[in-house]
């Protein structure tokens, strides 16, 4: 028995833990593992892959990134934007399938987010033996309570806020931290609460910067010296537009700049010295947290179990501290976003955090 694994979409901490888990569990069964490089691209002739022996995975558990490489562009990009689905062309699918057949791969583990799993679902429907593993720092996939990578990203945000807090206090400033989160504000919400932010601005909750300015004035009146604002990159301006850098040729639109916009406007409205900082890809890099190492490992082990049972078209899923699986179609095409009236937003508000609404 020989199985394949590929990482697709943006990288995140914990990808190597999944590879470690898959290779370890497969070795126990006496199976061979083929790792395809740079996502689905590695399937295109002549095939770009490596045989993964347990000895190849020694020491990778703690490494960020992925030893296989990944891409969120290329021939297999299923999504260019929210709800914007592009089918992978038939000739590309056929070429890639030939590689799979020549290598006698009996199961293909696709580690990806919404876009990559949408590609995985198309291929499964065309007869491929696909098993999905949910990955994204944004934590916005349906049908799983958590994706690996998210906890590591949140830790980076908390570290950033801890650092910004001391400099903000010293200078009595407003500090705006822009974090990732295209369509869902989970990183901003979790990171903001854990890092002691005073204001959290999310894609899901329209905000009014005049209200945020008034909130800052009231804080000043009660003796607070500084204010920490966290804003998700996908949070929208009053006209409903997201702030973009430019279009990422062949991929999704690149977000970035909302932090500067918010900081500039708050400085105008409050007259307070205000600075913006963007965490960017620091949130995707570096060593995974213990939780992400464990989640990645368990997800990898479950993927091999699904392959053993021949349960294709399913995605590994984390529910109530338990790793199980769901049909891939339950996980894609509908993002899991922050509920404006949900318990976490209520908890944030209960401790005096402003959501700008
Ligand atoms: O989807 C994960 C994510 O990190 C988003 O939060 C972010 O908008 C995007 O990927 C950035 O992608 P890229 O690596 O192409 O800049």
In terms of topology, how is this protein built?
Layout (H helix, E strand, L loop, with lengths): L1 E6 L7 H14 L3 E5 L12 E3 L27 E3 L2 E2 L4 H13 L4 E6 L1 H12 L4 E5 L15 H22 L2 E6 L6 H9 L4 E3 L7 H13 L5 E6 L11 E4 L5 E3 L2 H13 L3 E5 L11 H20 L4 E6 L2 E6 L15 H8 L7
Parallel strand pairs: 1-2, 1-6, 6-7, 7-14, 8-10, 8-13, 9-10
Antiparallel strand pairs: 2-3, 4-5, 11-12, 14-15
Helix pairs in contact: 1-8, 4-5, 6-7
Bound molecules: 6-O-phosphono-beta-D-fructofuranose.
6-O-phosphono-beta-D-fructofuranose binds next to β12.
Polypeptide structure, described:
The protein is an alpha/beta fold and 357 residues long. It folds into 2 domains: 2-148 and 289-330, Rossmann fold (3-Layer(aba) Sandwich), CATH 3.40.50; 154-281 and 339-350, 3-Layer(aba) Sandwich (Rossmann fold). It contains 9 helices and 15 strands. The chain has helices at residues 15-28, 90-102, 114-125, 150-171, 186-194, 209-221, 258-270, 290-309, 343-350, and strands at 2-7, 32-36, 49-51, 79-81, 84-85, 107-112, 130-134, 174-179, 199-201, 227-232, 244-247, 253-255, 274-278, 314-319, 322-327. The strands form 4 sheets. The protein has a 7-stranded mixed sheet, with helices on both faces. The chain has a 4-stranded parallel sheet with strand order 9-10-8-13, with helices on both faces. Strand 4 and strand 5 (84-85) form a beta hairpin. Helix 1 packs across helix 8, helix 4 (150-171) packs across helix 5 and helix 6 (209-221) crosses helix 7 (258-270). The radius of gyration is 21 Å and the shape is elongated. The structure holds 6-O-phosphono-beta-D-fructofuranose. The site of 6-O-phosphono-beta-D-fructofuranose has 14 residues, from strand 12.
């Amino acid at each position: 028995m020989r199985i394949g694994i590929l990482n697709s979409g943006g990288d995140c901490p914990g990808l190597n833990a999944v590879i470690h888990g898959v290779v370890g569990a497969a070795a126990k069964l006496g199976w061979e593992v083929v790792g395809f490089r740079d996502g689905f691209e590695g399937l295109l002739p002549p095939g770009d892959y490596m045989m993964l022996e347990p000895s190849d995975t020694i020491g990778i558990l703690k490494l960020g990134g992925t030893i296989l490489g990944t891409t969120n562009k290329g021939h297999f990009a299923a999504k260019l934007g929210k709800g914007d689905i592009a089918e992978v062309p038939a000739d590309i699918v056929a070429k890639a399938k030939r590689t799979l057949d020549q290598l006698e791969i009996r199961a293909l583990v696709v580690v990806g987010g919404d876009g990559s799993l949408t590609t995985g679902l198309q291929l499964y429907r065309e007869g491929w033996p696909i098993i999905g593993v949910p990955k994204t720092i944004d934590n916005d996939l349906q049908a799983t309570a958590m994706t690996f990578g998210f906890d590591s990203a949140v830790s980076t945000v908390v570290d950033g806020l801890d650092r910004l807090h001391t400099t903000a206090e010293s200078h009595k400033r407003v500090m705006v931290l822009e974090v990732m989160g295209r369509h869902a504000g989970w990183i901003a919400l979790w990171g903001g609460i854990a890092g002691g932010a005073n204001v959290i601005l999310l894609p899901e909750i329209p905000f009014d910067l005049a209200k945020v300015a008034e909130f800052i004035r009231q804080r000043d009146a009660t003796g607070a010296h500084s204010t920490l604002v966290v804003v998700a990159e996908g949070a929208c301006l009053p006209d409903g537009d997201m702030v973009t850098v430019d279009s990422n040729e062949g991929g999704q639109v690149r977000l970035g700049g909302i932090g500067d916009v918010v900081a500039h406007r708050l400085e105008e409205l409050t007259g307070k010295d205000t600075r913006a900082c963007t965490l960017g890809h620091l949130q995707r890099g570096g060593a995974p947290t213990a939780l992400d190492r464990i989640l990645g490992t368990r997800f990898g082990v479950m993927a091999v179990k699904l392959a053993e049972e021949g349960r294709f078209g399913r995605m590994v899923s984390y529910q109530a501290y338990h790793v199980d699986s769901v049909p891939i179609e339950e996980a894609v095409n509908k993002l899991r976003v922050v509920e404006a009236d949900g318990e976490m937003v209520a908890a944030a508000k209960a401790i005096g955090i402003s959501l700008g609404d």
